[in-house]
Structure to design on (85 residues):
């Protein structure tokens, strides 16, 4: 699997401290810890999807949006009375 390299700047000291602590606790490198955290945030697990479909994306982010997501969906479910007269 090919990978992409990033350079990230302006990391807050508190974030740096937490990543270093998790890295030490897990026995993983700092880099692997960051990759795991990004993967967990993106997919909800540290395991990457193995299939080429987008099934893993279904529902992603809904929990982080909370009631805002539900309101947007509810608004989209209402018929537009200007179009349906």
């Amino acid at each position: 699997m090919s990978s992409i390299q990033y350079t990230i700047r302006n990391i807050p000291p508190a974030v740096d401290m937490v990543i270093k602590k998790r890295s030490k606790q897990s026995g993983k490198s700092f880099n692997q810890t960051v990759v795991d955290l990004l993967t967990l945030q993106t997919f909800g697990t540290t395991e990457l999807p193995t299939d080429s479909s987008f099934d893993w994306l279904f529902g992603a982010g809904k929990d982080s949006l909370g009631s805002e997501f539900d309101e947007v969906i509810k608004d989209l479910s209402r018929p537009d009375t200007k179009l349906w007269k």
